[in-house]
């Protein structure tokens, strides 16, 4: 059986993005308690390392475009795979704080290197009709990574947290090999006359850019505090790995995002994703002492998280097909900055409000933003701007 170009690139991209985002990006938080105990690190050092992972991710985002311009869009995905593997190996063997930091930052940068370049690869190598499906498959690879991470987390109970990172290193190597085998080498794309400049690109991405600010902020709040909510209650220790696994499992529905966006419009899918994430946040904030409610929240969040992530790739490629990678990168950078600001604001208000109230307020922000986006989609301006169905 011969796979189509869209299927080959989609599967390879899903593998690489799954390891970079679903595993390497979230493994530090998952193994943090064991790292703290094993290496005897202070909260200050652990916090600095966590912040440094964002710097690595942002550096990967900004450098990927330059590398693609010189060597083609597949080059950043290869570098990202290598960073993920090398970083995970370093963390696995780290005995000193500085070595742990180097490994975590290197592994964290993988997500920045790999995600956006696939937009250019898909728009240049996959037939137009197959592009939304391929982009959705690639993004939904994060769910597969989270599912595997949840399985690897069991190793922390059976052995050592280092086994989690060793597993990530193996997965990164396998994904990199698959990527080299299935994704064609692309030449640097020449910039044609009349191509969108920076100001025109910003204008075209005004609505998805605003969506990115809210989406990434509410998602990072969930990921930052979900484990704390679970740990602070009376739930069993296995609840945290189960939470990640549930998010990954239900997030698989993100594969259908491309078809859904073609049917109802990317803007509406984005709006409904924010509404879904709002429901998950509200449930977590109001009923976190219930295992059933917590798992339901994780399942709902998985759907909203992965659909909302996948639709951003589809949406930006629809609006700016000639610069799909640059458009997606711009929204990811905006989202990354939002991801840094949101936890800082949350940390400042939690002492006064409480974590449960914060989650409910965040849910309200996500819900109101989703409704506003739906209302905007029904206006003539949305239709003229190409953001409607």
From TrEMBL:
Pfam families: MFS_1. The keyword ATP-binding does not apply. Keywords: Cell membrane, Membrane, Transmembrane, Transmembrane helix. One of its GO terms (molecular function) is transmembrane transporter activity. It is found in: Cell membrane. InterPro entries: MFS, MFS_dom, MFS_Efflux_Transporters, MFS_trans_sf. This is Major facilitator superfamily (MFS) profile domain-containing protein. It comes from Kocuria turfanensis.
């Amino acid at each position: 059986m011969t796979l189509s170009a869209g299927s080959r690139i989609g599967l390879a991209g899903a593998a690489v993005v799954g390891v970079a985002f679903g595993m390497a990006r979230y493994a530090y938080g998952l193994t943090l308690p064991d790292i703290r105990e094993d290496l005897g690190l202070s909260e200050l050092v652990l916090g600095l390392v966590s912040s440094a992972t964002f710097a690595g991710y942002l550096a990967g985002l900004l450098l990927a475009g330059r590398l693609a311009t010189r060597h083609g869009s597949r080059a950043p995905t290869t570098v990202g795979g290598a960073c993920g593997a090398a970083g995970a190996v370093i963390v696995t063997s780290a005995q000193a704080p500085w070595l742990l930091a180097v490994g975590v930052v290197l592994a964290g940068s993988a997500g920045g290197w790999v995600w956006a370049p696939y937009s250019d690869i898909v728009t240049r190598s996959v037939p137009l009709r197959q592009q939304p499906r391929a982009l959705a498959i690639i993004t939904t690879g994060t769910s597969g990574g989270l599912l595997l991470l949840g399985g690897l987390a069991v190793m922390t109970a059976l052995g050592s947290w280092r086994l989690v990172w060793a597993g990530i290193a193996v997965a990164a190597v396998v994904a990199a090999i698959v990527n080299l085998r299935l994704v064609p080498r692309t030449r640097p794309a020449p910039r044609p006359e009349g191509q969108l400049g920076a100001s025109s690109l910003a204008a075209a991405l005004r609505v998805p850019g605003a969506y990115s600010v809210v989406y990434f902020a509410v998602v990072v709040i969930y990921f930052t505090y979900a484990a704390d909510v679970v740990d602070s209650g009376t739930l069993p220790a296995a609840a945290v790995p189960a939470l990640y696994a549930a998010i990954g499992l239900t997030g698989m529905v993100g594969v259908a995002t491309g078809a859904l966006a073609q049917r109802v419009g990317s803007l509406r899918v984005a709006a409904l994703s924010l509404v879904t994430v709002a429901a998950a946040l509200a449930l977590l904030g109001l009923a976190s002492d219930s295992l059933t409610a917590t798992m339901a929240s994780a399942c709902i969040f998985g759907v909203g998280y992965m659909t909302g992530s996948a639709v951003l790739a589809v949406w930006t490629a629809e609006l700016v097909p000639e610069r799909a990678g640059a458009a997606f990168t711009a929204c990811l950078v905006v989202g990354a900055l939002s991801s840094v600001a949101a936890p800082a604001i949350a940390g400042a208000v939690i002492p006064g409000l409480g974590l449960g109230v914060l989650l409910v307020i965040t849910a309200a922000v996500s819900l109101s933003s989703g409704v506003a986006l739906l209302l905007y989609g029904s206006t003539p301006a949305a239709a003229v701007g190409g953001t409607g169905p």
